[in-house]
Amino acid sequence: MKTLTVDLGNRTYPIHIGSGLLQHAELIHPHIQGKTTTIVSNETIAPLYLDVLHKITSPYRNTDVILPDGEVYKTLEVEQQIFSQMLTARCDRKTTLFALGGGVVGDMTGFAAACYQRGIPFIQVPTTLLAMVDSSVGGKTGVNHPLGKNMIGAFYQPQCVLIDIDTLDTLDDQQLSAGLAEVIKYGFIRDLDFLNWLDQNMDKLLQRDKTALRYAIYRSCQHKAEIVAADEREAGQRALLNLGHTFGHAIETGMGYGKWLHGEAVSVGMVMAAELSQKMNWISKEAVQRVKNLLLKAKLPIEPPKAMSATQFSDLMSVDKKVQDGVLSLILMKSYGECIVSRDFDPVALQAVLSRE
Amino acid sequence: MKTLTVDLGNRTYPIHIGSGLLQHAELIHPHIQGKTTTIVSNETIAPLYLDVLHKITSPYRNTDVILPDGEVYKTLEVEQQIFSQMLTARCDRKTTLFALGGGVVGDMTGFAAACYQRGIPFIQVPTTLLAMVDSSVGGKTGVNHPLGKNMIGAFYQPQCVLIDIDTLDTLDDQQLSAGLAEVIKYGFIRDLDFLNWLDQNMDKLLQRDKTALRYAIYRSCQHKAEIVAADEREAGQRALLNLGHTFGHAIETGMGYGKWLHGEAVSVGMVMAAELSQKMNWISKEAVQRVKNLLLKAKLPIEPPKAMSATQFSDLMSVDKKVQDGVLSLILMKSYGECIVSRDFDPVALQAVLSRE
Questions:
Q1: Are residues A197 and A334 in the same domain?
Q2: Cβ B142–A118 below 8 Å, yes or no?
């Protein structure tokens, strides 16, 4: 097992990464203060791992809340159902919530923890690659709104993140690839060495080689922990983690939540960011090709959906959280392996990318 | 004008109290960072004060969100409508929200500010006595759940509280009395001198004498600011501010939100707390009578609704936020003018109070 720390003063917490960690109650128990727990999971994950987690929560009075599976259920209405079940079960301010599942379960459980009786502790137990390397770490929680993804939420940190990589055994190939998009993202943002490693080890990752997966997850979480510790509430560099996300969120919202996996939309978004960077001559056409090749190698899409017009992209991107006083910031590439946050992109070049000219 | 400060490190903010303050844009403008504002108000208050506030927001691109009036609309569903209007108006992370109204508008606007794009600034402009002396100060925000009052929310502090006591001119008598319940509460908790002053000046307050009102509001806010600064997230003494609230919330939820005004329910709740304290011989029967007399003088109810059984009280009180690991804390009276937080009350005496024996 390896342990990383997200260093946030009195809200500092550990990320444990390894095989078989769900067997180790001693990693979890120190983070539970009260006598009650609530496990939030979904219909897909619960049959696989709920029993194992029940062994950990057996010393406590536990309640299960099982959500329907999918991004389309990441809503305030479903959040209200979590609250109803918790109130019915007499959960109180000392109840510890567990998020057992992927990004949707993690984001919704974290937001439930942030809001239930104005805040209770929670623990992330991610079971998808995407949740392990990105959404379970850093305290971004929330739900979607019909008019925009992740528009309602809170910055709220967990007590602990427990990454048992054995849970990836049950992940389907499409979800595995979607997670790899966020792994590759760290390379594009700030780690050329990691990009080279990924290029050489992509086949192993797709074949679920545990050593390769553990390394990719550890390195990803290392980047995430470092960036979050430096800029918890995204006043500056944390925005880099949104590479591809403004385009990607527009695709997810525009196509209907759940039609595209988040990681797939981010993959296309990263290509669009690369293309915009190239049109402004920040990076070469060869660099764009390297971006595409690596994503293709991870079996990810690189073309935006034909159904989406440039106008629809523009409209959806105008409600992005990185718009301030009407001006959008984008994460763009300065070189292969280095990104910056910029408000100074060429709007004509952006239109060309959105129109696929 | 008088100004108090809520001292919370980098979240410190002022409370301005005086007549005609809504004419003074210079009090507000320093607290607005971006180029956009959104005013949240309700159907009753908007026709009275929206135009005045529009003068203050005129340098900014402003959006109005007008809610229906009443506690029954303090829900997650109505909160979602605020988000919809804000997204449609392209509000961003720099938009400043204004809460123009009473406690419901303040709580809902504060919670919207806490959650919209994971947190934006907001300013409290309370127009009811209750909101001025209690709910607009201290950062408790949120909505009701059908199973419990204020169960969903956040601790989220405003940038500034602007109390223009002239807005009390349009408050109806019942609402004025409801606000006085929270004013009297500060006396019961920790200020015998204030109780004596209130006893002598209650008629002036009911006649809306501005000097008396200003003093009562100032002294109430002083207590609130001091307690909140010492214990923002209610780990200890802040719970004292909940005197009468566990009983009161049960009445509000049990009778249906909006049937009883919050202050009226708290008035009865404080009498019940006094009666329980007396049954345990902490205070005398004479002290209970003084509690009742002062509340009666403020034209407040002192008897719980006949429709509510002891069982219904018990059930509703068991989801109170002061329950931890199944044990309820109550705020009880040690003497006339002094309260404590206690888990060591006599359950038989509590049953007797709930059964009105």
A1: yes
A2: yes
A224 and A344 both lie in a single domain: yes
Please list the helix, strand and coil fractions of chain A in percent, rounded to the nearest 5, in that order.
Answer: 50, 20, 30
In a domain, A106, yes or no: yes
Q: Best interface-test mutation with A: which of B75, B83, B118, B140 has the largest number of A CBs within 10 A? A: B118
Could you read off the pLDDT of B23-57 as tens digits, one per residue?
Answer: 999 999 999 999 999 999 999 999 999 999 999 99
Residues B129, B27, single domain; the answer is yes
Per-residue confidence (pLDDT) for residue A289, from 0 to 100: 98
Size of interface A-B (CB pairs under 8 A): 111
A323, B140: Cβ pair inside 8 Å?
no
**Residue A67 belongs to some domain of the structure:** yes
The CATH number of residue B64's host domain is: 3.40.50.1970
Q: Is A249 a catalytic residue?
A: yes
Inter-residue contact A241 to A182 (CB < 8 Å): no
- ipTM value: 0.95
What are the E-state strand segments in A90-206?
A: 96-101, 122-126, 140-145, 148-155, 160-164
Same domain assignment for residues A220 and A300? yes
Nearest-by-Cβ selection for B155 from A79, A118, A142: A118
C-alpha distances in angstroms, A188 versus A204, A240, A271, A346, B78? 20, 10, 11, 21, 41
Identify the segments of chain B with pLDDT beneath 50: none
In tens digits, chain A (357 residues) has pLDDT values of 999 999 999 999 999 999 999 999 999 999 999 999 999 999 999 999 999 999 999 999 999 999 999 999 999 999 999 999 999 999 999 999 999 999 999 999 999 999 999 999 999 999 999 999 999 999 999 999 999 999 999 999 999 999 999 999 999 999 999 999 999 999 999 999 999 999 999 999 999 999 999 999 999 999 999 999 999 999 899 999 999 999 999 999 999 999 999 999 999 999 999 999 999 999 999 999 999 999 999 999 999 999 999 999 999 999 888 898 889 999 999 999 999 999 999 999 999 999 988
Domain count, chain A: 2
- Residue A319 to residue B90, Cβ atoms within 8 A: yes
Domain residues for A157?
A: 2-170
Answer positive or negative: Cα dihedral of B49, B55, B56, B57: positive
Residues A13 and A35 placed together within one structural domain of the fold: yes
CA–CA gap between residue A76 and residue B8 (Å, rounded): 31
Q: What is the edge-to-edge ordering of all strands in the sheet holding B61-67?
A: B2-6, B13-18, B160-164, B122-126, B96-101, B36-42, B61-67
Residues B165, B179 share a domain: no
Whether B151 and B186 share a structural domain: no
pLDDT in tens, B67-119: 999 999 999 999 999 999 999 999 999 999 999 999 999 999 999 999 999 99
Is residue A44 in some structural domain? yes
CA A162 from chain center: how many Å?
A: 15
CA atoms of B345 and B357, how far apart (whole Å): 17
End residue of a domain, out of B170, B195, B213: B170
Mutate to test the interface with A, among B135, B143, B152, B320 (most CBs of A within 10 A): B152
| Domain end point (choices A145, A170, A195) | A170
User: Is there a single domain that holds both residue B41 and residue B91?
Assistant: yes
Consecutive H or E run containing A107: helix A103-115
Chain B hits for A319, CB-CB cut-off 8 Å, are 87, 90
> Which amino acid makes up residue B45?
I
CATH number assigned to the domain comprising residue A315: 1.20.1090.10
Residue A319 domain-assigned (yes or no) = yes
Contacts of residue B324 in chain A, CB cutoff 8 Å? 34, 92-94
Clarify whether B118 is annotated catalytic.
yes
Contact residues on chain B for A88, CB-CB shorter than 8 A? 147
What pTM does this model have?
Answer: 0.96
